[in-house]
């Protein structure tokens, strides 16, 4: 009886996307206002409103950084990506999550992503994804300020991991005569001040001296960024294309992860989600 052929190592079977024919992948950033995705083999980012239509009228399944309608989120993802995936493919998915989303957010997100028949689902904090997108030096403390449409989040990274984070349910979509841009800037200053006061070491101070990375649509609002620079007495740097920085960082991690042995086998996604810190 002939011996079966010995399988080649996983790293030999995989090639960089889009030339890898063994798997497909999705980098996904679920926002309260917009959802953005990068698919293996594509040069552009898919960008759509985070809206689902179960019947009459628009429904917003993600609000203030929380998934409030999981089936609606799944329908939106299916409408956005279902027809773009290989018919029999099972993608590797890397999903960005709010720093303070914790287990509840990741559980609801995993349930929604099941509609895409994932082989493996990994999660990464938005702040970490942003740092990866801009090739930030993660050996030094880093302050990331996410000025979103419905949520503003401040995260402190040390050695590449989030060590402190704050958020407020306030974003650029709330700006009007009663809520001026200065209110968002003041909220960020208050969160950073609390970080400095409660930091047992010097991570927050070191990161502040280095300057802050700004991401999200609010990073394009000079009336917010100028006020932040004045109030924090430090450089504030909007990252290139700040609205898509998180999904671009997730895409970089996805391209590195798809050749890893842990993503090559068929993994039972009913268990706990792996997490990329």
Description:
The protein has helices at residues 10-13, 70-81, 102-113, 126-133, 181-198, 203-210, 222-232, 245-257; strands at 25-30, 34-39, 46-49, 62-63, 66-67, 92-97, 120-125, 142-147, 152-158, 161-168, 212-215, 236-238, 275-276. The radius of gyration is 20 Å and the shape is globular. The chain folds into two domains: 10-128 and 245-276, 2-Layer Sandwich (Nucleotidyltransferase, domain 5); 135-239, Nucleotidyltransferase, domain 5, CATH 3.30.420.40. The strands form three sheets. A six-stranded mixed β-sheet has the order 3-2-1-6-7-13, sandwiched between helices. By secondary structure, the chain is an alpha/beta fold. Helix 2 crosses helix 3 (102-113), helix 4 packs across helix 8 and helix 5 packs parallel to helix 7 (222-232).
Features:
Nucleotidyltransferase, domain 5; 2 domains; five-stranded mixed sheet; 8 helices; 31% helix; MreB_MamK-like; cytoplasm
Terminal CA distance reads 48 Å
* Beta-strand proportion: 15-25%
Number of helices: 8
DSSP E strands, number: 13
CATH architectural name of the largest domain:
2-Layer Sandwich
CATH class category label of the largest domain: Alpha Beta
Helix fraction, binned, reads 25-40%
Q: Tell me the series of helices and strands, N- to C-terminal.
A: HEEEEEHEHEHEEEHHEHEHE
Average pLDDT figure: 84
Largest sheet, if any? 6 strands, mixed
Spatial ordering of strands, largest sheet: 3-2-1-6-7-13
CATH topology of the largest domain: Nucleotidyltransferase, domain 5
How many structural domains can be distinguished in the coordinates? 2
């Amino acid at each position: 009886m002939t011996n079966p052929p010995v399988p080649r190592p996983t790293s030999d079977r995989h090639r960089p996307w889009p030339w890898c024919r063994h798997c497909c992948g999705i980098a996904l950033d679920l926002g309260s206002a917009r959802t953005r995705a990068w698919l293996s083999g594509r040069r552009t980012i898919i960008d759509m409103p985070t809206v689902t239509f179960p019947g009459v009228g628009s429904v917003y399944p993600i609000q203030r950084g929380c998934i409030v309608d999981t089936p609606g989120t799944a329908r939106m993802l299916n409408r956005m990506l279902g027809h773009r995936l290989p018919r029999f493919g099972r993608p590797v998915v890397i999903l960005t999550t709010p720093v303070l989303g914790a287990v509840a957010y990741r559980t609801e997100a995993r349930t929604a992503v099941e509609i895409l028949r994932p082989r493996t689902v990994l999660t990464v904090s938005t702040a970490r994804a942003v740092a990866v997108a801009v090739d930030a030096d993660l050996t030094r403390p880093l302050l990331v300020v996410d000025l979103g449409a419905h949520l503003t989040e401040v995260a402190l990274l040390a050695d590449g991991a989030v060590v402190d984070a704050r958020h407020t349910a306030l974003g650029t979509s709330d700006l009007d005569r009663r809520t001026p841009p200065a209110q968002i800037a003041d909220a960020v200053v208050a969160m950073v001040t609390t970080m400095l006061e409660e930091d047992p070491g010097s991570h927050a101070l070191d990161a502040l001296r280095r300057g802050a990375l700004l991401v999200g649509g609010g990073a394009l609002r000079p009336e917010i960024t100028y006020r932040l620079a004045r109030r924090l007495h430090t450089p504030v740097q909007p990252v290139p294309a700040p609205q898509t920085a998180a999904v671009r960082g997730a895409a970089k991690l996805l391209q590195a992860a798809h050749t890893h042995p842990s993503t090559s086998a068929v993994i039972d996604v009913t268990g706990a989600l792996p997490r990329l810190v």
